[in-house]
Amino acid sequence: MCGIVGYIGSRDAKEILLHGLEKLEYRGYDSAGIFVINEENNGHLFKEKGRIAALRSKVDNAVEANAGIGHTRWATHGEPSVRNAHPHQSADGRFTIVHNGVIENYQEVKDAYLEHVDLVSETDTEIIVQLIAWFAETEDLDTVSAFKKAIVALEGSYAIALVDNTDPEVVYAAKNKSPLLLGKGDGFNVICSDAMAMIKETNQFVELMDKEIAVVTREELIIENFSGERIERQSYTAELDSNDLEKGTYPYYMLKEIDEQPAVMRRLVLKYQDEDDNLTIDPEIVSAMTKSDRIYIIAAGTSYHAGLVGKELIEEMTNIPTEVHISSEFGYHTPLLSENPFFIFISQSGETADSRQVLVKMNEMNYPSLTITNVAGSTLSRESTYTLLLHAGPEIAVASTKAYTAQIAVLAILSEVVGSEKGLIKEPNMIQDLGIVANAMQSLVDEKDTIESLASDYLSITRNAFYIGRGMDYHVALEAALKLKEISYIQTEGFAAGELKHGTIALIEKGTPVIALVTEKSVAGHTRGNLQETKARGAHTMVISMDGLDRPDDHIVIPKVNPILSPLVSVIPTQLLSYYCSLHRGNDVDKPRNLAKSVTVE
Ligand code: F6R
Questions:
Q1: Same domain for 473 and 400?
Q2: Taking CB atoms and a 6 Å cutoff, what residues make up the pocket around ligand 1?
Q3: What is the DSSP letter of 505?
């Protein structure tokens, strides 16, 4: 949430910052700004409401500057506006900052130190920059000392980049909880929330850790802790292919990412295969899971929905009881835990603050944990005991698609390996099953025309919609409903088919779209019966069924796959329905309103 960039070197800082912000736009896009400065101390601030494209058109191309900071915002305190857009400056104009995170004690800080200052914005960020200026002036502190003193007074999450107009040869940075990377170049250095932003400039990055300060010049990256001790940290090579970050010929990233899913399935099988072509998982993870008496899956949003499927896979293949929890609930209302719990965090970004607060608490209790994530080196990956990667390639559309299916596939591989280790699975066949899934996915992504016309027929003018199903199909119904509502803005519910009649069926009226998922033999008849009940009350019904359970009037029939893997395939038409519905409504498919991809605030 919110993206930060910084650059100091000898090239045009404006262009590097704007390009970096374009790559970070997935983190928030309600306003944006840059501050650039040159060696003659001429600073220029540009801010605009809306997208980076709007900011770009406002930036004066004639300005020459070779250092600066930039920000793309997802509003927390204060509406999206130019006034609330970052960077923010101190009243004396000396300090300029950008900030990602939430300062929880901003009111207390304001009351304690800043009563004399007329704040110009409604943001918590402005408090930080005014506080730095206050300490620098009243206590005659140098910039690093004033910066440290200010952030020690703050509670909450922050990733900050700071420029002091009186010394344009340095950019400062600090972080707590929110992610921040320092990038090393030849004669320049950069700062960014995500390596994607600066991969065009460098692939060498150093992680800044919580409660550290970085002093960044053209030649050097100095990291120190609050006591002033210098910290030496090796850089790592970010393995990002800049081609993966482009849309190519696709109109939207979401469509590209939906189409990539068969390839991701095949890649995962290769990544988790040993030289003998058997699936393999780090034996330490297998042993930790085998020893545990209960698994707790912690996740948010789409990743939580993948977790619901994961529970079924783990219980079916390993016999280990498994619970799935929404991370924002679990941390503050922790249930009674078993004696030997094992935690699995599922997170595409590996940065979700709600999940991280649970991990921090579970680490304090010394419980073992595994993060399943798409981003190597992400916060959750670093802070958990073990990591398994999704190998899905960067997911840029805000609505998650390929990460969801990759999460389920990794959980399936993990479950089969643990189940085999426990002697519960005699003839492992996940490699073949995932191959069949990949082919089935391919046949569905090739059916775009049919799905596009169903989207026009069912979803073009409706106000609300339902997905229903039982068992695995219910889990997919939840995900399908989230996908549809987040990018089409249609109020959609995912519902347990049998539960509708206990109240919610009151919402069905003439023309309400109700889409049933039917891939599980034992409950197929019941789900169809529940769909008929809605049809009798005027619903406009659609069926997505699996080959072998299909009936002549079904609208989409997915190829037959191992039923425990059906979510990997049945979700594909629902992703495409959401995509086309959003497209037909004229929405920005990749950047739906009010959302951001990496949710780094609680
Ligand atoms: C929906 C979506 C979100 C995320 C959620 C968790 O399409 O993408 O619901 O799944 O914000 O994010 P991660 O997986 O990064 O922890």
A1: no
A2: 300-303, 347-349, 352, 355, 399-400, 482, 486, 599
A3: G
Q: How far is the CA of 130 from the centre of ligand 1 (A)?
A: 34
Q: How many residues does the chain have?
A: 602
499 C-alpha vs ligand 1 centroid, how far in Å? 26
Atom of ligand 1 nearest to the CA of 301: 9
279 and 353 co-located in one domain: yes
What band does 256 get if pLDDT is binned at 50, 70 and 90? very high
What's the total number of domains in the chain?
Answer: 3
Query: Are 104 and 234 within one domain?
Result: yes
| Mean local confidence (pLDDT), 551-563 | 97
Mean pLDDT of the chain: 96
Chosen domain end from 212, 243, 274: 243
User: Please, which pLDDT band fits residue 377 given cuts at 50, 70 and 90?
Assistant: confident
Q: Please state, in angstroms and rounded to a whole number, the distance separating the CA atoms of residues 268 and 261.
A: 11
Q: Which position among 14, 311, 483, 597 bears the catalytic label?
A: 597
CATH of residue 114's domain is 3.60.20.10
Calculate the alpha carbon distances from 510 to 150, 488, 500, 560, 585 in Å.
Answer: 59, 21, 16, 33, 21
Are 482 and 360 found together in one domain? Answer: no
Q: Model-level pTM?
A: 0.91
* Span 344-354, pLDDT tens digits: 999 999 999 99
Say whether 192 is catalytic: no
Longest dimension (CA), the chain: 81
Residues 572, 431 share a domain: no
- Do residues 146 and 20 share a domain? yes
Residue 535 bears catalytic tag: no
User: Residue 453's domain is classified under what CATH number?
Assistant: 3.40.50.10490
Mean pLDDT on 171-191:
96
| Domain membership of residue 138 as a residue range | 2-243
Q: What is the pLDDT of residues 262-315, one digit of tens each?
A: 999 999 999 999 999 999 999 999 999 999 999 999 999 999 999 999 999 999
Distance (Å) from CA 561 to ligand 1 centroid: 26
Give the model's pLDDT for residue 333.
94
Residue nearest to atom 5 of ligand 1 (CA): 301
Calculate how far, in angstroms, residue 55's C-alpha sits from the geometric centre of ligand 1.
27
Alpha helices in 86-216 (DSSP H): 106-113, 125-138, 143-152
- Using the 3D structure, point to which of 424, 445, 466 is the last residue of a domain: 445
* Same-domain status, 346 and 454: no
Exposure string of 494-514, with b = 16+ CB inside 10 Å and e = fewer, is bbbbbebeeeebebbeeebbb
Taking the CA of residue 304 as reference, the ligand 1 atom at the shortest distance is 10
**Nearest one of 354, 353, 362 to 295, comparing CA atoms:** 362
155 in the same domain as 229: yes
State yes or no: pLDDT of 1 exceeds 80: no
pLDDT tens across 182-235, in order?
Answer: 999 999 999 999 999 999 999 999 999 999 999 999 999 999 999 999 999 999
Nearest CA to ligand 1 atom 11: 301
Catalytic residue among 2, 110, 177, 192: 2
Q: How many whole angstroms separate alpha carbon 225 and alpha carbon 471?
A: 51
Q: What are phi and psi of 398, to 5 degrees?
A: -60, -40
Atom number in ligand 1 closest to CA 302: 10
